[in-house]
């Protein structure tokens, strides 16, 4: 028996694939979305009687294309009709896997085009590739639905009017453009991992969505080690999700986590990807971050290796946040005093960030400098908008 | 092919370039325009005089009112333009990048609705 839930599942799995093909056939994102939605409406009526077709994705694409052609015949003048019909029929090809793969890549690169703002890139990616509704995206990012709707309309309008091309970038542009795609997926993941605001520490649905998209990308670009590295990074971080929060929803730092609650399956998938990246030997920031998480996933943690990997990461991506994380690892090898010297050197760059003060607080606590630690915990708590993080910092201060 | 307007975003305040710097910029711009022509992308280019040389003609009912000065006082003004004819935004942005490098000022890349 095929029911609504089956169609909903196919929708989530195949929406992006179908829209990607239809955008190429129709040359317009809105028309493509409309056609695909109509095809799914037809599926809801048809499939309960006829059963699931052998290739649900193929059925959706064919139906969507036929509907688009019909609609066009109804709505356009005769001259336009002839011109358009020839265009639509040129692409009357079967749903061949290679061509579809290219279409999905085209769609990813269009959604993450550098001429679009980050929030537009994120919304488009979740909508068109993830098959999420406007309401779902709004819920995930805790923004009003009209805001998301407006972002999507404006972005699609710009794609059409400014003529953002629907293609995979040429080799010369690929590294930069791929970086933009990876950054969008990582942003979706990190927002899920520690929501910048709100009551819950982790928004698992957002992480799951980011992982689903990263899996797609890794599958579409198996020769790009950074795409594999990003997926590995997400899987390894995700493997510790359950252990990161206590039963009451409060935060548990890495060192104090109950390792039996880590998801070995996800961690092993992540480590396996890290090994694949190592064999390729074309390191990049996401791969090195994944390697660091892979070391963290083993017991006991080899902190010297973590420091060495942070040295590597700092060479590839010299940001203050990387330097802060490196300092934490140095603290585990050379003691909190050595780490504190490094952290204090980052005040100019990171003085406004809660993690800077939280790190100082932990180091000062371990050095037995309780008064200074208390001040640092307050400074940190004042600078986070996440309620769970704030509770954690207040609790730590209370324990001094 | 599609038309795009490349506008040079010129600051009103700040130190203007020295004559030597201006010479170097003009040389770069000449080279850039030659490259645009060679690529078949060039339609029109020009440098604009300062906004205080502008006059605005404004419909007021049946009348037309002339006002002295630009239509809006802003911290930046359009100091020059190029119109290019290229296949898509990626191609337009590539000319935008080259223009920004040649001139050393921000370049706004904007599609024509019709041309």
UniProtKB/TrEMBL annotation, chain A:
<feature type="region of interest" description="Disordered">
    <location>
        <begin position="70"/>
        <end position="92"/>
    </location>
</feature>
<feature type="domain" description="DUF6596">
    <location>
        <begin position="177"/>
        <end position="277"/>
    </location>
</feature>
<dbReference type="InterPro" id="IPR013249">
    <property type="entry name" value="RNA_pol_sigma70_r4_t2"/>
</dbReference>
<dbReference type="InterPro" id="IPR014284">
    <property type="entry name" value="RNA_pol_sigma-70_dom"/>
</dbReference>
<dbReference type="InterPro" id="IPR013324">
    <property type="entry name" value="RNA_pol_sigma_r3/r4-like"/>
</dbReference>
<dbReference type="InterPro" id="IPR011990">
    <property type="entry name" value="TPR-like_helical_dom_sf"/>
</dbReference>
<feature type="domain" description="RNA polymerase sigma-70 region 2">
    <location>
        <begin position="11"/>
        <end position="76"/>
    </location>
</feature>
<dbReference type="Pfam" id="PF20239">
    <property type="entry name" value="DUF6596"/>
</dbReference>
<keyword id="KW-0805">Transcription regulation</keyword>
<keyword id="KW-0731">Sigma factor</keyword>
<dbReference type="Pfam" id="PF04542">
    <property type="entry name" value="Sigma70_r2"/>
</dbReference>
<dbReference type="InterPro" id="IPR007627">
    <property type="entry name" value="RNA_pol_sigma70_r2"/>
</dbReference>
<keyword id="KW-0804">Transcription</keyword>
<dbReference type="InterPro" id="IPR013325">
    <property type="entry name" value="RNA_pol_sigma_r2"/>
</dbReference>
<feature type="domain" description="RNA polymerase sigma factor 70 region 4 type 2">
    <location>
        <begin position="109"/>
        <end position="159"/>
    </location>
</feature>
<dbReference type="InterPro" id="IPR046531">
    <property type="entry name" value="DUF6596"/>
</dbReference>
<dbReference type="Pfam" id="PF08281">
    <property type="entry name" value="Sigma70_r4_2"/>
</dbReference>
<dbReference type="InterPro" id="IPR036388">
    <property type="entry name" value="WH-like_DNA-bd_sf"/>
</dbReference>
<comment type="similarity">
    <text>Belongs to the sigma-70 factor family. ECF subfamily.</text>
</comment>
<protein>
    <submittedName>
        <fullName>Sigma-70 family RNA polymerase sigma factor</fullName>
    </submittedName>
</protein>
UniProtKB/TrEMBL annotation, chain B:
<protein>
    <submittedName>
        <fullName>YciI family protein</fullName>
    </submittedName>
</protein>
<dbReference type="InterPro" id="IPR005545">
    <property type="entry name" value="YCII"/>
</dbReference>
<dbReference type="InterPro" id="IPR011008">
    <property type="entry name" value="Dimeric_a/b-barrel"/>
</dbReference>
<comment type="similarity">
    <text>Belongs to the YciI family.</text>
</comment>
<feature type="domain" description="YCII-related">
    <location>
        <begin position="16"/>
        <end position="99"/>
    </location>
</feature>
<dbReference type="Pfam" id="PF03795">
    <property type="entry name" value="YCII"/>
</dbReference>
